[in-house]
Amino acid sequence: MDQEPGGPQNPQGAHELPRCYRHAERETGIRCTRCERPICTECMISASVGFQCPECVRTGSGTGHAPGASMPRTLAGGAVASDPRLVTKVLVGLNAAVFLLTLILGDQLVHRLTLIGGAYDPQLRDVVGVAADGEWYRLVTSVFLHQEIWHIFFNMLLLWWLGGPLEQALGRVRFLALYLVSGFAGSALTYLIAAPQQGSLGASGAVYGLFGATVVLMRRMRQDLRPVVVLLAINLVITFVAPGIAWEAHVGGLVAGAAIAYGMVHAPSGRKRVPVQFATCALVFLVAIGVVVGRTMALT
After folding, report:
1. Is 197 helix (H, G, I), strand (E, B) or coil?
2. Is residue 272 packed enough to be buried (19+ CB in 10 Å), middle (13-18) or exposed (0-12)?
3. What is the pLDDT of residues 290-299, one digit of tens each?
4. Residue ranges of the chain whose pLDDT lies below 50
5. pLDDT at residue 202, rounded to an integer
6. Domains along the sequence of the chain with CATH
7. Rounded Cα–Cα distance for residues 123 and 137 (Å)
8. pLDDT tens profile 37-72
9. What is the DSSP letter of 144?
10. Residue 187: alpha-carbon gap to chain centroid
11. CA 112, CA 135: separation in Å to the nearest integer?
């Protein structure tokens, strides 16, 4: 270790180098250019400037990787991307684009895309809905549909806050699967309980899926859960107190998101990781499909 001038000298340790923070038995003169922790030659990963440690690369702080080495992976095994919010940005943009279309085309588009089990629509002058006319697409299109400015504003704000860290931790493909399946599960529970007359629209089911996944992820990383739990509790109170809110979508998405995230972040490393993660997503999706099919049979 370094000593101040004039201090006691240690013949054996005078020139001792720092030790790699991941391999305590290895001395090294290399430090991560991001966190400045000492790293050995096995741990160092080439970057545009100097070398970075595996943790900084894995969490997105760095972007380089050693030639011939395997691509750095996220906590859930996804590839580390140069833009960890790309999918989040696309989802926000897609929701905003659909909202603009509703402003341009009016209620006609809303009535065509909203989730409804089956009822006579005076606007369209027809019986519409999943059960009434086999319009299964409504279970998905309703997740991207908003009619009020305050509705899309708060949903997109939460999507931005929660989506970025989750996308960075899970990887793009896993994050997108989490969002879509959570949204579909929220639609399925709404369809089960609120169908056939009550309509539902909005990204809340998918957003609550991100809430559930955030809790699971933060617990896995042993982070302080209090901020996100308080925020979730406030939103749940609003869900059950405020009128006109489809609580079924919120609860369905929350449960689905937590289940999917648990399977993703707790899947065993190695070859079993991807099959376990895929099976978790597939199981949640199939349960939602079963709910939809069962409710449709009951209605028809």
Report:
1. coil
2. exposed
3. 999 998 888 7
4. 1-15, 61-70
5. 93
6. 1-72 (no CATH), 86-299 (1.20.1540.10)
7. 19
8. 888 877 888 765 567 788 877 765 444 444 444 456
9. G
10. 18
11. 9
Please state, for a pLDDT cut of 90, what percent of the chain lies above it. Answer: 49
Tell me if the bond preceding 196 is cis, omega within 30° of 0.
yes
Q: What is the pLDDT of residues 132-153, one digit of tens each?
A: 778 899 999 999 999 899 999 9
Give dist(CA 14, CA 31) in Å, integer.
20
DSSP character at residue 16: P
**Please, are residues 96 and 156 in contact by the beta-carbon 8 Å criterion?**
yes
Q: What are the tokens at 198?
A: 């009550």
Q: What residues contact 69, with CB distance under 8 A and at least 6 apart?
A: 45
Q: Round to whole Å and give the CA distance between 57 and 181.
A: 28
Reported pTM: 0.76
Which H or E element spans position 128?
Answer: strand 126-128
Report the amino acid identity of residue 98: V
Give percent helix, percent strand, percent coil of the chain, each to the nearest 5. Answer: 55, 5, 40
Structure tokens belonging to residue 44: 């160092």
- DSSP letter assigned to residue 81: P
Q: Is-contact 196 119, C-beta < 8 A?
A: yes
What whole-number distance in Å separates Cα of residue 249 and Cα of residue 206?
8
